[in-house]
Amino acid sequence: MILSPSLSNSIVTIAHNYLGKPFDWHTFHCVHFVIEVYREAGIEMPAFTDAGYPPTDFHLSPEEFNLMPVGHSVFFKRRANTSNLIWTHMAIIASPNELIHCSRFFGCKVTVTSKIDFLEIYALASQPPHS
Question: How far apart (Å, rounded) are the C-alpha atoms in residues 10 and 25?
Answer without folding.
Answer: 26
